[in-house]
Amino acid sequence: MVVVAGLSGESYDVDAEPFYAAGTRSVQYLCRDPRGQQRLYKMFRTPATSPNDIERARQVMLIGRQTVVNAEAAGATGQPAEAINWPIDVIVHDGMLAGVVLPLIPMDYLLPDGRPRTLDQLWSTPSQTASYFRAGLAVRLCDIVRVLEERQLVHGDLSPRNVLSHASAPLAYVIDTAGLMPADAAYDRYKDRYDLATLIYRTLFLDAGTAAPGMPWQPGAGFPADLDPRLRALFDRAFGNGGFGPDARPSAAEWDDTLRATYLTPDGTNYVPETLAVLDRHTGRLPMGGPQSAPAMPTVAMTSPQAWTGATPQQPVGYSTGPQQYSTGPQYLDAPPPGNSNTGLKVILGVLLVVLVIAISVGAVVLTGKHSKNDAIVTSTVTTPPTTTTTVPPTTTPALDKSTLNQQATDKTPFTADALLPSTFTDSKGVVFTRTSSGAKDCIASNMSQNVKTALQNNKCQQMMTGVYFNPDQTILLSIEVFTFPSDTESSAVYTGLKGANQTWDVWCPTDGVGASVCKANLDTMFAATYSSWGRQQYRYLYESYALYVNLVQDSSLEPNLDAPAHTIINNVGPDNYWK
């Protein structure tokens, strides 16, 4: 048995014999983490040597680890981010990227013999190709790819063999993620959009299409004459009909919104029989509810984990070999009652969207010796300002019982920058501050003081959303951190436990442009700079702010100018920003 160490700080006991060695680019081994959880070590046959490749892999790992470890520890939420086989650790040996560590594929996405339940197999399974099932699955595919897009990540090979379908519900699971990379570093940043369009087309119309050697895949059976024109317009853009270029291909968000508008009622609780009937006619099936329609899908309870059976050594890597600690969530559409084409289909498919933008840490310096409103000492970490993404706000805001925000199980606030951080706010001196960048990070950063790390870890900190704001003349930088916990018990324990103690937290700056100099300044200069810092605990959240002048001025008379935004922001972030 071999032991390999990951960049996360964890080590893995790796089996001596390959679990699956047939890949041309990797050899895969079963391994176990320090808690005995079975994982998969994907060792590259040709290690990557570029520092940029290693850093990109590390950033993807941070997102994946946060998603997977949280789901295993606290239970799955059903969000589409959990339906991605994320890398959860990166193995670097002798300065080279040797491989990645992955979770095992959930059992519900495997056939009885242990082989992956790939999407192309679904298309030939009559019991799972009813129109309602295909429409629901297409929506779920968009939800998953939307997660990647809004994190500015490209998969690069969203083929039918890399998308798995659930055994009985219109849910999907994306694998082969070792090559995930930022869109701006991808060879073709629009390839995922083309691949998604082909998956949607084949799923809706059960059409294998055509793929001449060296040519892009194209639809084979055309489109229904009565297909919703909004969908047809998206397909035309995706496949280049009418002279559209690659940059015009629809995003996953566009597909998601249009598919929902086409096949679901406005409140999202029912299917639309008339649009499903278009699919039935095109594929040669009778409208749903007819005597020869596909069998109704049974209701499947997926709110708790199900026991997994062991895989045999002959099964290829990625197959389940032990119990999984979380399910992939209960969000799917139930089947229509047989013989009733006018009865709506109740759903428990919510708006499954995680908008997380990568903020890449490239260095750190320590800022100490200053008094703050929460007696905190902060560190400064350089981050890359992410590409701005926009989340469409809800059209209606339901009445909110704020006690629901105290528990993860009842808190429905999305973990997105737009939900947790205002785009602008006005401080107590009347100055408007505008958010210029944001990003999701691991709760525990290497440059935090040990007492902060211990408090966050012991109280099961789940996620951290960071944001950077500037005043109109860009002379003041304001950094904010929003931490989430399972309940208000944990967030309160961190706040009260650290109150009055010396603490080291992170401050976020742009890598380039205005504000970058703050985090790149030498330590002595930063020691002397005037600043203001505040902390607050609310519901199951914890907030930390920090404000200072970009030129690191030393003038205590200017402290009120920093105190105003640092204090105001902590009263404007968190779930109240979303629900108000």
Concise account of the structure shown:
This protein has about 575 residues and is an alpha+beta fold. It contains 14 helices and 19 strands. The chain has helices at about 50-75, 120, 130-150, 190-205, 230-240, 250-265, 275-280, 415-420, 450-460, 490-500, 515-520, 525-530, 560-570, 575-580, and strands at about 1-5, 10-15, 25-30, 40-50, 90-95, 95-100, 155, 165, 170-175, 180, 360-365, 375-385, 425, 430-440, 465-470, 475-485, 505-510, 530-540, 540-550.
Structure report:
By secondary structure, this protein is α+β, with helices and mostly antiparallel strands. Helices cover 25% and strands 20% of the residues. It contains 14 helices and 19 strands. It has helices at 51-74, 119-122, 131-150, 191-205, 229-239, 252-263, 273-282, 417-420, 450-458, 488-498, 516-520, 523-528, 559-569, 575-579; strands at 2-5, 11-14, 26-32, 38-48, 89-93, 96-102, 153-154, 163-165, 172-174, 181-182, 361-366, 377-383, 424-426, 432-441, 463-470, 476-484, 504-510, 531-538, 541-549. Strands 1-2-3-4-6-5 form a 6-stranded antiparallel beta sheet, covered by helices on one side. Strand 3 (26-32) and strand 4 (38-48) form a beta hairpin. Helix 4 (191-205) packs across helix 5 (229-239). The longest helix has 24 residues, at 51-74. The protein starts with a strand and ends with a helix. Residues 287-397 have low confidence and may be disordered.
